[in-house]
Design brief:
The protein has 418 residues and is of the alpha/beta class. It folds into two domains: 248 residues, P-loop containing nucleotide triphosphate hydrolases (Rossmann fold), CATH 3.40.50; 132 residues, CBS-domain. 32% of the residues lie in helices and 20% in strands. It is built from 17 helices and 17 strands. It has a six-stranded mixed beta sheet, with helices on both faces. Strand 12 and strand 13 form a beta hairpin. The longest helix has 18 residues. It is elongated and about 85 Å long.
């Protein structure tokens, strides 16, 4: 996510955006908690205690922690659904206390687990709620509603005039997100927005949200109790513990690699090293180099390629460099390469595959390595269990470049057969 955009105060117009109804667009706003404390009358322990953190413009900050740790309380302090006891919250450097709650909320999007759509008005009227409060004219609202329905992958003609009860849970959640974005807010609050959705649709909505965020680049505060969702969604994660105390604020990779204490380590889970595989794609790490061979190629040339490869087994490819299989020693006994395979090229992994899924493919196929292909199906290297193992033992900064994933000479010598 790009967090280096220039920020504007929540009420100021920013650079034109052709995707918005009137050509105006509010850029993302930074958000800062400064020593925030919230105590409820009659409660001995604070709900939030001395919380300080900063969310840069355009980033997704996920608040995560066990039940009762103050995640939702912290979020509701931002749009003044509840008021601070001590400290301050700044949006682009301006205190939330300097604006009336009503005005503040009109410039902050809010999406919740229960969705909160008005049941007796149409989808279009639900999405247009805040724009109507801001005095937009009917044509501008109508145009904006259609834009947003398309943005959240719903057909405006099919959806605009329907009522919430006529939609599936996933569709209603999309409408809830569209409504939160209706007035193009610089800041979006999302309180367990996908928590009530079944696992399959929940993953689909998460992916669609990340695709959407890549386009709209809003500043997002996202509450969840699910650490896996936090790792997938967040640019930075704030782990809260009971009493609303901040245990750690870090990127997902840093959180998994360097948990601050035993509480964070336990909350993230014993499989935190494996969770890092969900953060990277195959293209993000250094792959082994294979000796590519074609049928009829001079075997002396293939043997020369093997000297510069990370595997002792040649990979047979077709004329478009698409993997066919792993060649046996017998394939190189003559002057020309023959199609004598040790095993087919299975599984085939794509550069854009998530490492977690690629590892699953390797294990399911009971092999230590697999050819990797680009978007056109051309061979791009080899992924191995050794490469993945080295990735899991690198620091987050190193893991993103793959710079230190070097194959040891003894590992190159005689890898196990696929």
């Amino acid at each position: 996510m790009n967090s280096s955009q220039s920020a504007h105060s929540p009420g100021q117009s920013a650079s034109p955006d052709p995707g918005s109804a009137d050509g105006s667009h509010e850029e993302a706003a930074s958000l800062e908690f400064r020593g925030v404390t919230k105590r409820y009358p009659g409660q001995g322990e604070a709900a939030i205690e001395d919380l300080s953190l900063r969310v840069e413009a355009g980033e997704i900050c996920v608040l995560v922690g066990p039940s009762g740790c103050g995640k939702t309380t912290a979020m509701r302090l931002v749009n003044r659904l509840i008021d601070l006891t001590e400290g301050d919250i700044l949006i682009d450097g301006t205190s939330v206390k300097d604006r009336s709650p009503a005005e503040l909320r009109r410039h902050i999007g809010y999406a919740i687990q229960q969705i909160g759509l008005f049941p007796h008005v149409s989808v279009g009227d639900n999405i247009g709620t805040v724009p109507r409060l801001l005095g937009w004219d009917k044509q501008r609202i109508s145009t904006r509603v259609d834009e947003l329905l398309e943005l959240v992958s719903l057909d405006p003609h099919d959806t605009r005039d329907r009522y919430p009860a006529q939609l599936s849970g996933g569709q209603r959640q999309r409408v809830g997100v569209a409504r939160a974005l209706a007035a193009d807010p610089p800041l979006l609050l999302m309180d367990e927005p996908f928590g009530a959705i079944d696992p399959i649709n929940r993953e689909r909505l998460q992916n669609e949200f990340l695709r959407l965020q890549a386009r709209i680049q809003k500043t997002v505060v996202f509450v969840t109790h699910d650490i896996d969702e936090a790792i997938k969604i967040g640019d930075r994660i704030a782990v809260l513990k009971k009493g609303g105390k901040l245990a750690q604020y870090a990127t997902p990779a840093e959180l998994l690699m360097y948990p601050a204490d035993h509480f964070v380590e336990d909350f993230v889970g014993a499989d935190r090293a494996l969770k890092r595989l969900a953060l990277q794609r195959v293209r993000d790490i250094d792959l082994w180099k294979a000796a590519e061979a074609r049928i009829g190629e001079d075997t002396r040339e293939v043997r020369r390629k093997l000297e510069d490869a990370d595997l002792t087994i040649p990979l047979l490819v077709d004329e478009q460099r698409r993997p066919i299989g792993w060649l046996s020693h017998r394939a190189l006994e003559g002057e020309r390469v023959e199609e004598k395979l040790r095993s087919p090229a299975e599984p085939v992994v794509e550069l854009d595959d998530i490492l977690r899924d690629a590892l699953s493919d390797l294990l399911s196929s009971e092999t230590r390595y697999a050819p990797v292909v680009d978007g056109d199906g051309r061979a791009a290297g080899v992924l191995s269990l050794e490469v993945i193992g080295r990735f899991l033992h690198t620091a987050p900064s190193e893991a993103r470049t793959g710079a230190d994933l070097v194959v040891d000479e003894e590992q190159e010598a005689s890898p196990a057969e696929p």
